[in-house]
Amino acid sequence: MKMLQKTILTSLLCASLQLAASEGEIKEAISTATKHYQAGELSQAIAQLDYASTLIRQEKGEQVKKAFPDAPSGWQAEDADSEVAGSAMFGGGITASRNYYNDQQRIEIQLMMDSPMLQAFSMMLSNPSMIAMSGGKLTKIQGVQAVQKIEGEQLEIQFLAPGGAMITLNGDKTAQSTMLALANAIDLKKL
Would I find Signal among this entry's keywords (predicted)? Predict the structure, then answer.
């Protein structure tokens, strides 16, 4: 019982960490899960597999940060951040974001991937009637259908990358051309 508690605690702690794991750690977790499975210790096997999948998500989260474009001329960008949720938390997934700014405007790009919650967003973004009812306007970003919505002084652009990642840009509506340029510069192959 103590082993199970320790394994679960380790898995939960690792879900909140943002450090990339080594290939050896991932292989060891999978190997340990296999041993637990073969011994009939199914709870421990599940915990180790959850741990391994969290380590892999962390690694992917680090890679995903490379998809963000550089700051446009006259703008600055903060370092990209990524967070990983283990499968025990909302089914898992990866989120990443990066903020861009100049003296008067601010734009944030958010990415969400590998989450079961994306299915609902996918259905919403693929339904032109729902988009129109919500006040959205259809456009294309890198050949993919996207939605632009203006609320007050804020503009939001959302689209799904071919690999299934949801991309959301938020910022001042006066920065629309910069937002569109940033959206078109995201490296979708790295998602």
Answer: yes
